[in-house]
Amino acid sequence: MHLSVSSILISILLASALIVIMQWMLSHRAAYKALRIDFLSIFAIIIGLRLFLPFEFINTHTISSHKVLPVIYAMGNQQVRTPTASITVLNIFKIIWLVGFVIGLMKLIYDFGQFHKVVINLEPVPNNYLAPSVAKLIPEQVKLLYLPIRVSPFTLGVMQPKIVLPKIQLTPTEQENIIKHELCHIRSYDVLKRYVIELLVCIYWWLPLIYLFRSQVNQIIEMNVDYQMVKKGSKTEYSKYVHSLMSVASLIATQPQNSQFNFPKFTINEQPTLEDRIFFLLEGYNVRHTSLFFKIVLVLLPLLITSVIIEPEHYDRKDMEGTYSVIPSSHKNYILKKGDKYYLIVKGKNAGRLPNYTGAKDPKLKQLPVRSK
Questions:
Q1: Considering only CA atoms, which of 207, 203, 221 is closest in space to residue 14?
Q2: CA-CA distance, 322 to 184, in Å (whole number)?
Q3: What is the pLDDT of residues 245-279, one digit of tens each?
Q4: Residue 105 domain-assigned?
Q5: Whole-model pTM?
Q6: Minimal CA–CA distance to 155: which of 127, 123, 180?
Q7: Which of 138, 219, 135, 120 is nearest to 182 (CA)?
Q8: Number of structural domains, the chain?
């Protein structure tokens, strides 16, 4: 694996395109009824992995850029002089990114701490709140807490999971469906998934589409739980489950608009997705798996999005004067050989491709060691 500016740029472009495609699928009910939740889940995983691992892989084919990337690389290596030192434009962007990342991470930790203070002060669910048949469904390691305001039930905690139930009067059937739904979140480690997505948001805080991706993942998580709840049930159980969702939606709709309770992004809050899920289920969602054709597309997709990388064509010697000083004795300066292509690595960074390296007459280039990785 090799990390470069080019690999990061192409990963962001490809992931952004896939996020837009997934938004189209989630916005058109006919699309995700055809593709199914298993397809959407794997599609989201592929996007997340590409963003977490923006590397060149062994199957990557390099395409040379003669105009755009050379200009971008040249701009990134321009020196900005200050009274005390000089710094490249690329390093300025790195500092800005690092500051944003640290602020985002600190905010996430702060939100966790503040929410933890609220949670530890919540009272356990009263003994008479749940029907006896529903209370038996709760595993010993799962705590039930009571929130005296009208919000959608939610789950939090990874090692010590908790289900928070609101101040809503529900029938035993509705209680059973809600508890089973929240337990499904716990078994699927959905809170942990939300932490992973929040870390991704901290990394790509400057990318607008990452916030859309976060909401997409939240919707897919809820759709997956709905799928788990109804896939083996009868039509009667299906109807009861939909009715339970509608009851919760109706009751929390009367929540005062000035409520000061805010959900951190790492909790499983179902309110934003509730309406879409109800409409989806009411349209008669038939539980089945994605067709073989779309599964083949999913298998090929990771190979396709890692198969191409665009690298800048090497600048000629005149253009490079004053930009780099190639010192053969430095271990960070060498020639990288990838297949039949050669790249100049200066100070550990890819400066571009050398199309005529074998016939080059520059003695400094010939003194540089050739490496395969």
A1: 207
A2: 61
A3: 777 777 666 655 444 455 555 444 555 566 667 66
A4: yes
A5: 0.75
A6: 180
A7: 138
A8: 2
